[in-house]
Each structure stands twice: as structure tokens, then as C-alpha cells.
């Protein structure tokens, strides 16, 4: 699984980071950044949770 953030939608709410700090990091620019090239298998469920809870629907999954 790969994941990306649409920076034009992201508002830095950090719900994604609450779901997994291994995959997402909200920085001083108030944008979430993806920390991994490929999501570790054990983090996939957390990424799905992040997609569901992101209030801006800014996260998309690429299988
Ligand atoms: S939860 Fe969504 S809007 Fe908030 S920082 Fe993460 S990707 Fe951006």
C-alpha cells in the first residue's frame, strides 16, 4: 500500500497522525507529510482509519 496527501485539501488537523505517527507527520507548515514510501503491513489498518477520520478527505490510498 502507498498513500498520499492532497496538500490543497490538507488543513493540518493531525487526525492522520493520531491514527499513526509512523506514516504521517504534521509539520510546521501545517501540512501532513507521508514518512514512508510503502506503508508497513502492520500499519495498513491505521492508514485506513486515518483516511476515514481525515475531515478534509485529503488522504488517498494507492494499492
Ligand atoms: S487529518 Fe487530513 S487534513 Fe488533517 S493533517 Fe491529516 S491529512 Fe491533513
Question: What is the topology?
Answer:
Blueprint: E1 2-5, H1 15-19, E2 24-26, E3 32-34, H2 44-53, E4 59-62
Antiparallel strand pairs: 1-4, 2-3
The protein binds iron/sulfur cluster.
Structural summary, described in words:
By secondary structure, this protein is α+β, with helices and mostly antiparallel strands. The chain has one domain: Alpha-Beta Plaits (2-Layer Sandwich), CATH 3.30.70.20. Helices cover 24% and strands 22% of the residues. The chain is built from two helices and four strands, in the order βαββαβ. It is globular and about 25 Å long. Iron/sulfur cluster binds next to α1.
Give a short synopsis of this structure:
With 63 residues, the protein is of the alpha+beta class. The chain contains two helices and four strands.
Structural class: alpha+beta
What is the helix/strand order?
EHEEHE
Number of helices: 2
- How is the CATH topology named? Alpha-Beta Plaits
Overall tally of domains = 1
| Poorly predicted tracts of residues | none
| Biggest β-sheet strands, sense, barrel | 2 strands, antiparallel
Distance between the termini: 5 Å
Query: Any idea of the CATH class?
Result: Alpha Beta
Helix content: 10-25%
Overall geometric form: globular
| Overall strand count | 4
How much of the polypeptide forms β-strand, as a percent range?
15-25%
Rg from alpha-carbon coordinates: 10 Å
The ligands found in this model are: iron/sulfur cluster
Provide mean pLDDT, rounded. 97
Per CATH, which architecture?
Answer: 2-Layer Sandwich
Query: How do the strands line up in the largest sheet?
Result: 1-4
Amino acid at each position: 500500500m502507498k498513500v498520499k496527501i492532497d496538500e490543497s485539501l490538507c488543513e493540518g488537523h493531525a487526525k492522520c497522525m493520531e491514527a499513526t505517527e509512523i506514516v504521517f507527520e504534521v509539520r510546521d507548515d501545517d501540512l501532513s507529510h507521508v514518512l514512508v514510501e510503502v506503508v508497513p503491513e502492520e500499519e495498513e489498518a491505521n492508514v485506513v482509519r486515518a483516511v476515514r477520520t481525515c475531515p478534509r478527505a485529503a488522504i488517498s490510498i494507492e494499492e
